[in-house]
Amino acid sequence: MDFFAFLAPIEWVVAWIMYLCHQGLVFLGFSDGPGPAWVLSIVGLVIIIRILLIPLFFKQIKASRGMQMLQPEMQAIQKKYKGKTDPASREAMSRETMDLYRKHGTNPFASCMPILLQSPIFFALFRVLNGLVPISNGTDDPIGPINSAVASDIESSSVFGAQLSDVFLRTDDLQTKIVIAVLIVAMCATTFFTQRQLTMKNMPKAALEGPMASTQKMMLYVFPFIFAVSGVNFPVGVLVYWTTTNLWSMGQQFYTIRRMPAPGSEAERLLKERQARKRAAKGVVEDATPVIEQPRGQRQQPKRKDRQKAAPRPVGTTTPNVDDVPVEDAPVEDAPKAADGSGTNDGAKGSPATGASKPAPKKKKQK
């Protein structure tokens, strides 16, 4: 029983994409039969697959940023349950972690989705290239449009002297081994720089600390090592595919990180510096304190202030009568005499010039 039998539909799709890309290159002027057109058809396969995966790529970027933003809260949860190994604490920690993922709308597996979806295509291409010799000999059935004649042409196509179906451990030709070794190094280097670009330049400082950051740094070196060990069993065509898809990922991530960096990351700082230089070149000067323009509208009417109310009088008290208030006698001054001695003390006959005396005040009423 073939364990990889479930890959048969994917192998059929991969075979048709390669064949149609080859026919398109022949239409553009490339030679039919063995030649660089079949090598470039693998590159065309990468381009088509990665274009189809662009929506997942943006989901990957969003999930990665979400994981970066929740790192402080994740560290708080880990600190809260540090040293607690009882089942109840572990269950509570897992529950709070899942609630945190739901709150930020992300999960740790979303960032790996493009790689996981490419894995079946990777293994399908691996099986197609490994089956070229049996198909060309007529011992295996054709895969889609790849019959014995087409399989013979693909197998005879080479990259710097190394055929697409050659494997490092199955060839004795020195030139072929050198070419395959260079492709393995290129595959591992592009894998390393792709992961480093995503983790180091597009992550805030808070996300570069903690257990998850340590795991990501470890995986930064583990993946290239795994590809270096397993690359000696890959056909040349698979090495071309993986190196090309890594180069595509590097370019795609470079564009995304440059235009839409994660908040607080090194890439965001570089973006702000570029924007400042562009504004300075255009002569735009930024104000230190931005002026906030108040909205214009109907003039606000002044509010009426309530007058202070008099304190209520105690019960049982009466308002005093004016006549009951004692009146004190005002002092009486004599009017000055005129120079000719004609002044009198009569208030009715007095004149303003002579200073008439004031009338006497009323006497105090006797009760």
Question: What would the keywords be for this entry?
Answer:
367 residues; mainly alpha; two-stranded antiparallel ribbon; 55% helix; chaperone; YidC_ALB_C
Descriptive notes:
The protein is mainly α. It folds into 2 domains: 155 residues, no CATH class; 123 residues, no CATH class. 55% of the residues lie in helices and 1% in strands. The chain contains 12 helices and 2 strands. A two-stranded antiparallel ribbon has the order 1-2. Strand 1 and strand 2 form a beta hairpin. Helix 1 packs across helix 6 and helix 9 packs antiparallel against helix 10. The longest helix has 27 residues. The termini are far apart. About 8% of the residues have low confidence.
What is the chain-wise order of helices and strands?
A: HHHHHHHHEEHHHH
How would you classify the helix and strand content by structural class?
mainly alpha
Q: What is the number of independent domains? A: 2
First and last CA, distance: 133 Å
Determine Rg (CA atoms, Å): 47 Å
User: What is the general shape?
Assistant: globular
GO cellular component, one term: plasma membrane
InterPro entries: YidC/ALB3/OXA1/COX18 (IPR001708), YidC/Oxa/ALB_C (IPR028055), YidC_ALB_C (IPR047196)
Organism: Cellulosimicrobium funkei
Subcellular location: Cell membrane; Membrane
